[in-house]
Amino acid sequence: MEALIVSLQSVWNDSGFEGLTSGNVIMLLVGLILLYMAIGKGFEPLLLSNIAFGCLLGNIPKTGFFDEPGVMQVILYGINHEVFPPLIFMGVGAMTDFGPLLANPKTLLLGAAAQGGVFVCLIGAMLLGFDLREAASIGIIGGADGPTAIYLTVKMAPHLLGAIAVAAYSYMSLVPLIQPPIMTLCTTKKDRMIKMDQLRTVTKFERIIFPIASTIFISLLLPPVCALIGMLMLGNLYKEAGCLDRLSDTAQNALMNIVTIFLSVGTGLTMEAEKFLRYQTILIICLGLVAFAAGTALGCLFGQVMKITSGGKVNPLIGSAGVSAVPMAARVSQVVGQKANPSNFLLMHAMGPNVAGVIGTAVAAGTMLAMIGPAGK
Amino acid sequence: MEALIVSLQSVWNDSGFEGLTSGNVIMLLVGLILLYMAIGKGFEPLLLSNIAFGCLLGNIPKTGFFDEPGVMQVILYGINHEVFPPLIFMGVGAMTDFGPLLANPKTLLLGAAAQGGVFVCLIGAMLLGFDLREAASIGIIGGADGPTAIYLTVKMAPHLLGAIAVAAYSYMSLVPLIQPPIMTLCTTKKDRMIKMDQLRTVTKFERIIFPIASTIFISLLLPPVCALIGMLMLGNLYKEAGCLDRLSDTAQNALMNIVTIFLSVGTGLTMEAEKFLRYQTILIICLGLVAFAAGTALGCLFGQVMKITSGGKVNPLIGSAGVSAVPMAARVSQVVGQKANPSNFLLMHAMGPNVAGVIGTAVAAGTMLAMIGPAGK
Amino acid sequence: MEALIVSLQSVWNDSGFEGLTSGNVIMLLVGLILLYMAIGKGFEPLLLSNIAFGCLLGNIPKTGFFDEPGVMQVILYGINHEVFPPLIFMGVGAMTDFGPLLANPKTLLLGAAAQGGVFVCLIGAMLLGFDLREAASIGIIGGADGPTAIYLTVKMAPHLLGAIAVAAYSYMSLVPLIQPPIMTLCTTKKDRMIKMDQLRTVTKFERIIFPIASTIFISLLLPPVCALIGMLMLGNLYKEAGCLDRLSDTAQNALMNIVTIFLSVGTGLTMEAEKFLRYQTILIICLGLVAFAAGTALGCLFGQVMKITSGGKVNPLIGSAGVSAVPMAARVSQVVGQKANPSNFLLMHAMGPNVAGVIGTAVAAGTMLAMIGPAGK
Amino acid sequence: MGPVTNNPFLIAIINMIVVFGVLIVLGVLMHLIEMVDPTKKKAAPKAAAPVAAAPAAVAAAPVVEDKSEEIAAVIAAAVAACGGSENVVAVRIAAPATSWAVGARAEAQTVQPFC
Amino acid sequence: MGPVTNNPFLIAIINMIVVFGVLIVLGVLMHLIEMVDPTKKKAAPKAAAPVAAAPAAVAAAPVVEDKSEEIAAVIAAAVAACGGSENVVAVRIAAPATSWAVGARAEAQTVQPFC
Amino acid sequence: MGPVTNNPFLIAIINMIVVFGVLIVLGVLMHLIEMVDPTKKKAAPKAAAPVAAAPAAVAAAPVVEDKSEEIAAVIAAAVAACGGSENVVAVRIAAPATSWAVGARAEAQTVQPFC
Ligand code: NA
Ligand code: NA
Ligand code: NA
């Protein structure tokens, strides 16, 4: 009988209840809240639900996930060495239509302007006391590209990965709430009613040459993001080539889903209490909102510039789509434009800055890596 | 001419015929027999055929599979560090419906009772001279869960992996032969004719909260099986969330099939003659049968207890489904019940203990890991 | 202002434009030409387009792909340790129908005869000054099996991987241009008009036993190609077993596409200027053409032998299909035969030597590995 | 750290206690979840259908899938109306997997849900 | 090697210059590509259709996919002719993914495109 | 251990001997397999069909897949009966891949085939 009690005692001693810190408990609650946001509220469920579940698993003590080989170590390897973001970008590329951008290359400028949010946020972060690499990683939230944000953060400030990933994906899903008021603030009703000319047809030739040419140019200029841009454009080549549909399908589906699971569960695993439960996390979340708002505003304001220079042919609403968050931001432009003028169809026009924003964020990340360099180097 | 003969001789000397031991030959025969069982007889073909083919490949001398890097080393890494079983469990989770269990939580007890087979077998194995960790691994055959058995065996007694995997999957496919006589022995015809009330509807809320809550509770209590339970429940969340169907599909199909191939080929590769061709293998196979029989009997007997305490509302036949072997054991309950009373539909009632058995076996594995600890520690 | 210029200067200094060698530039052009061939001209686009894109990415300086962990290092690991070719072969096996070969085993000899091209090429390469292992790798181009060529080259002469892969896949896609003139040269119009008897039905039993038996026999004789042959036949078993369709589907689709992407991008990455831009590359490309031509001719000539020994029942055109390049070579036999006699249907007859050629090339690779041994050993 | 005990009977007993204990706690959890369920309603009438349907599902092969039923019905009706009914053994509707793929492709023009 | 500067404003300015610079160069590239395009034609009439169709696509769920339109139209016509039209909410055609699979299998008898 | 010989002709001869030898043994194996085949029957009548069908398959694109033929035939018949026949170029039936997915999902309610 005594042996029985001793044994039961030993099971308890080896359990995770023993060794559960208050930090773990709070992180479990954070995980539950994130799960509620992801599944209950529909905030980027594909990513956030896994991040949240990973957060739960990562805060169970004594699992050995961080020191013993196993499936979680395999996943963490892929996180810590940026294996997954380029593979996600391959699938994103296979889903991206650069047609509207090729039809109207001027909208590239809107995608550039909206990256201003990244640097507003970077400046803010440094003023609030974050160091340069942390500030760069926080700023990239404003780029509204999950894989790029994760890629840069792992290189620059891996201890912030959880907070930045959560902020980035949360705000990306909140784009339909964050953007409209800012957009109406930066435009007049007359602006919003502007109808744009229909886009020219883009040939298959252009669609095939563009990903190749842009890969070479951007990779040469910014080698640190060659993996990201290269995979994005390779995926797009699968989509456009016409003879690579098998690979396009796999890049968008089987491979992307597998990598999404690993990326997001692994990101959640890194959310340890001592890294996440700091007042900096709250600052990051606030700065992320500033970044999104600033990006939206700068996009719209640059849209105003383009409206004037084009003689009133450009609806400034499409500027807000430059933050990327593809395709949600473009849909927001469409919805806000249609509210002002029910016969207004801005979707395809907004897709140009929208996909330009993806490239712009990768360029911004590459520039920061080139100027600042990865951590520990 | 002489050079030609010398060269042909050298090809022969480097061939696997040179160096082929009698053990290898017997193992090749074992592989062929397993292939016959898998493909010819339909015993768990998805797993056993690959195990058998891996057994063939692993017993070819001089392939370098065990010492040179290559595809087989990648596969063996995943075997030796339990990377694959949790990923399989993710797919299993995405295929599992916990609804019947949620509708009638009492059937959890049947899933617990049937784990008795595990410990009957463990006791038998220790009495037959196996050491504690070997006995635990052999006992888990009675849990009728392949991934859990492989997970525990790799941690506890990796030299028994081949024998235990073969026994587990063979008996799982033999459930329709093993269980019915034991079930009729443990029940009267009147028992078997009992019709059960229809199950209440389970809400989506319950279906979503359950995998989350049970992950946290079981993982905290038994951290060594957090990877298994966590992935099982994450897969189930994919199924139930409603917004994660992409991931559910991949977890059930592409990812699961890939991992199944690797897991089962890799398990076969570990079947070396010196490990497998021992009289212990025969003991393991006998003990596995005892475990299945004991689990079935204990499930039915506990079903009798529940019949009495419920005032005759529970058909004890559903107890046998507690060994898991999902969904075969539940179908056996259905078939045996319908034979006694053609208007009897026990399938959904038996699914409760059936999926409870999956959890129960993982809990049993976790308890043994907590009490005994993995090998070499 | 000065700081701004210094900073912009530093971005430029860290860019890939700084450090871009003339070799890189030429290789970028090579990559573009290969892309044009792959997508514009349809030369094996699934493979060559990725090889070409990998070539582009691999020739961007300062990406860190070859020295820092990341997605490209994961891919290069799979290349350098021959992880991918056996997995591709699993998918190939799942797509291969050995039925026509089983119906007419004599056509195996045609698959053997066409391997003569491999050795013609090997002899030529050694006479041109390549060392033994390089010559073996170059010779295998004549086998017209991409995965086998990559597998052997990585083991024997990894510095030639790029050139050999490009030559192999280019000529495989050029089979419809290379073969017909040689085929008409080696046959008379009367030969080409020969109609062959219809093939007997092959039972499921034969289809299932053959991959198992041939795996055991070939692997025992030539253990160095056990991974290749084993996976090929395991994939074929998935196809034929009837109960493994899930795995067959995954082996042919999700897994094969993922591995194809990794294999071909990784192969492209290894195309460094200093390895590729040598006059040997031109020799390799010429030798590859010799190998294809010699294989075709030897196949047809052996077809003539079989025509005579069979009393005129064998159309020698099916001999050219023995080079493999499945299924293109068999289609060429069909087309050339039908041109001579519009009621002639050689396709199924040519599939026998065609799939025999796959086995034959693997056997040739295994023999060379057994006789010569891998590099550095 | 070695094992706490080597007595197989003790191990068996402790394990069964833990297994029963854990599953009983899970049962309590389930009841709690049911109790706090904010979506709980009088769902009884709905419950009848699936259970009643179960036997049929067991007896016959699943021919028609969830949401696609309408479409299948329409096609079947069309076929029947045209007088070719006997051969309709199984109208397999493109699986959900397929429809995701369709959706993905439909959205792909303008959508990157992951980015 | 440390960072070149720690001044956030300088970093922001340089970055924006680089981002604008790169995207402007990309724009130039796009124009160049358009100019050298050997396949360029008077494609204007074709252009009208997709843009005009866009609103409809936005308003309604995408019911019918690219190449499969004919087939879907045929089935829909058949269904309509047989008088069951109201329920045809969405005739989902087997997705391209599926058709590749079909193709792969059809070819599998005799084809190994990777080998 | 170095290579046995460096004479390319010798290597070529030996290799060809091995290749022929192995494939001849495989041929013998095939005959053995055929001889011991317990399922062998007078399958001749069946054999005629596929071979005869092959030419057609070569000539035309593969329109209709194996098991789905009946269904396709039914749909085609329905379509034809309704008078819309010319456009039916290819009725692609959901591929087997799809039907496994369907099956998997159908079973998923109650089934875990891997566990
Ligand atoms: Na962006
Ligand atoms: Na179990
Ligand atoms: Na070949």
Account of the 3D structure:
The complex is a heterohexamer, with 3 copies of chain A (377 residues) and 3 copies of chain D (115 residues). Chain A has 377 residues and is mainly α. Chain A has one domain (48-57, 70-371). Helix content of chain A is 72%, strand content 0%. Chain A is built from 20 helices and no strands. In chain A, helix 15 (245-252) packs parallel to helix 16 (254-269). Chain A is globular, with a radius of gyration of 22 Å. Helices cover 62% and strands 0% of the residues of chain D. The model of chain D is unreliable at 43-115 (pLDDT under 50). Chain D has helices at 8-36, 44-59, 69-81, 96-108. The longest helix of chain D has 29 residues, at 8-36. Among the domains of chain D are: 7-39; 69-106, no CATH class. Chain D contains 4 helices and no strands. Chain D is rod-shaped. Chain D is mostly helical and 115 residues long. Chains in contact: A-B, A-C, A-D, A-E, B-C, B-D, B-F, C-E, C-F, D-E, D-F, E-F. The C-E interface holds C 3-4, 6-8, 10-11, 46-47, 88-89, 91-92, 94-97, 145-147, 239, 249, 252-253, 256, 260, 324-327, 330, 347-348, 351, 358 and E 4-5, 7, 10-11, 13-14, 17-18, 100-101, 104, 107-115. The structure holds sodium ion (NA) (3 copies). Residues 143-145, 323-324, 357-358, 360-361 of chain A line the site of one sodium ion (NA).
Notable features of this structure?
heterohexamer; A: mainly alpha; D: 115 residues; mainly alpha; 4 helices; 62% helix; rod-shaped; binds sodium ion; membrane (chains D, E, F); cell membrane (chains D, E, F); Methylmalonyl-CoA decarboxylase, delta subunit (chains D, E, F); transmembrane helix (chains D, E, F); transmembrane (chains D, E, F)
